Each structure stands twice: as C-alpha cells, then as structure tokens.
Amino acid sequence: DKFGDITAIPESTCTVPQTLQPDDGKAGGLDEYSCSFTRSITGQPGYSHTNTVTATGRDDDKKSDGSPTDPVTHSDAETVTIKDVTSAGIELTKTASPTSVSEPGGNVTFSFRIDNLSNVDTVTINTLTDTIYGDLTDSTALPGTSCSLPKDIAPKGSYSCSFSVYVATDLPTTEAETNVATASGVDDDGVPVSDSDDATVTFVDAMPSATLTKTATKALVTFKVEIQNGSTVEPLIVSDLADKPYGDVTKTSADPNSGIQRTDCKVPWTIATGGKGSCTFDAWVATSPHVDTVTAIAGDNEGNTIDPEPSDSATVTLQ
Fold first, then answer.
1. Which of 12, 131, 187, 191 is the S-S candidate for 37 at Cβ 3.0 to 4.6 Å?
2. What angle do CA 107, 112, 116 make, to 5 degrees?
C-alpha cells in the first residue's frame, strides 16, 4: 500500500501471520480475515487518492520435492475523492471608541476584527473599505492605520486592525455618523467571501456658555452744592462757585460729551440770614474713582468776603 506495511501503522488492527481455513462457501467464518487502519487524506476539492492493498501468503501443500508451494497473492484498490465543503464565510465586527463626541467633535478609534468561520478553508482578505473613509489600508488618507492587505486567515482564525480619526459633529443637521465597513476576499478554493458591519458615533450637543460683565466707562452725574449762612444778623452773598475739575459751575460746557451739561447754580447768590441754599449741576464723569471739589467765595453787604469752610468734595466710582 502507499502507506507501506499496514501492520506497522499505529491506528491499524491488521496483524500477521493469519491462518485461514478452506473456503466454506459462507460469509464470515474462519476462512476469512478482516482488519482496518485509519489515515488522514488531505487535498483540494476534486483530488483523488487511490490506495491499493496487496495480501501475500502460502497454502499448506508441498511441491513434489518437498519444498513449499509458490506464494499466493491478491490486490485490491479503493479510491477516495475529496469533495468541496461550502465555505462558512467570514464575520466582520466593527466598533467605535468612544461611541459619542461632544461639539465640535473629537478623536474616535474604529476597530475591526475579521473571523474565518470555516473549519477547513483558509481565507485571503483582499479589500477592507468603509462608506466614509474609503480604503482602510490607505496610510496617506488615514495616518496611523494598522490595516494592511492581503491577509491570510487560517481556519477559525482572525485578523484585527484599527485606525483613529477626528470626527466633526454636524449638529443640528445630523445627530450621528454611521459608517459601514466591508471586508472581501476568497477562500482557498477561490470562493468569494464577504461581510459588512457598521458603527455609529452619536453627536452630543454642548450647552451654550456666556459671562456677562457690566462696566461703566462714562456717566452723567448730578452734583449738589449746599451752603449754610452762619450769620444771625445779615444775608450772605455768594460771588463765586468754582469746581475742580469742572471750573465755574455756573457755566455749561460747549462739548456735549464732556464737562458740565446742565446747571442751576448762579452768582451772585443771596442766602437769607441763618438760612441754607442749594443748587445742582450735571457733569460727565469718565474716570474712576472721580474726586470732585467745590470752593465758594461769599461776603456780606458791607463788602466783607469769606471762603466758606470747609471746601467740600464728592467721590464717584464707576462700576
């Protein structure tokens, strides 16, 4: 046989010598001997393995000279043909990590695993493509991709690869991005195999954020000037009202954007004996803090003059 002495094969039940009785014309019995052995036959579909076994022995007769008779021998052949097993195909699993990104977007790693579902066929993967990112082996378009082809996958084996990419959100137009990857190839019999899987990345709306700061850079402020007549015998005549920094508070500025814009202060200004008088003026304040000081000159009807004490100031802070 192609396998040599079949009595020496570990899986064989065949042993020699064996003594067979004369043919009794019936099936079975001591005139027959049966045995078997097991060997693995491999090959591509359509391959035929022909196995011929030859048995050799002698009968119990003697030649006339007393020597043994010539050997008896017989051969028989059996052919085994390997049939194709329908490919179990492949299974592609695609995942995304993370599965959601907040506005305006973020890096996402897409991972792929291709499993060969066959127990007997090796598959060769020739293409791995994506509906958004195209050829997943293109390192120019996808720097850092670990996917490379072609790739042979043994029976029940697998192949894994991945790439990372920035996924930009498209809210409110689109709430998620779904892309489909497809792996294709052939098994070792030339039968096409293919599978697809998708992954979805959800877009998360980022809530608006704002900080409001109010700062007064300029204000129109009303200042009040008040004078008390300390005499109990005669009126007080105010002849001058001066302000730092505005100057004469009885006059308005020609510039509508600076200085005194309105005043009801007038001189000469007579304040009754023991009485009190007041006036106001509106002026632009553009610095902070703003210190404003008013000084007055007053006298009596005999021409005596005084500077009312004290001069007084007001501070304005813009906020």
1. 12
2. 180
